[in-house]
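Here is one chain, start to finish.
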Amino acid sequence: MGPIEQADIWLFRLVNGHLAHPAADELMLFLTDAALSLPLLLLAGAFMIVRRGRDGLVVLLLAAIAVGIADFTASGILKPLFHRVRPCFALEGVRLLVSQSRSWSFASSHAANSAAVATTVWIFFRAGALVDRAYVAVMLLYGLLVALSRIYVGVHYPGDVLGGIAVGIASASLVYTVAAWIVKRYVHGSALRERGMRP
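Its structure:
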């Protein structure tokens, strides 16, 4: 066992065991269950539409695409590739707070998906008014807490979560880059051509 894996296990034990508290259990269970926290996500989506109108729908679409890419990368590529056993099945004395099937551990799809949403929000709202920046802060905090909850409930190592966050950030950045290129190439370019100008 290398030093990185030892540190990963030590951090897992710290979050899952030493920092555990009954009050935190309820919060982490709420955050880790997508069905329970769905109303928060619906409110977040409604905020986009209220603040940006039709453009908010476009941001929602881009966020959904980023989540799809992040989820596929984490669950469809990395987990079968690395075959890392979840801590609740590999270690003794784990506080397992949720029902967990025997799927692979790296990378965390929860962390990847929440990071994809948070990154998309940051890209489009970080330079807005105070309420927009507050929205960004809330979504970033929500994404981090969702990622932390996966360690707390006993189903992921910190390394899995960090890997998932990296996947989510990369997915959202890729989607934004491609979307920006399409807009510049085909939307703005078409408008300039109609005016007799070169894009």
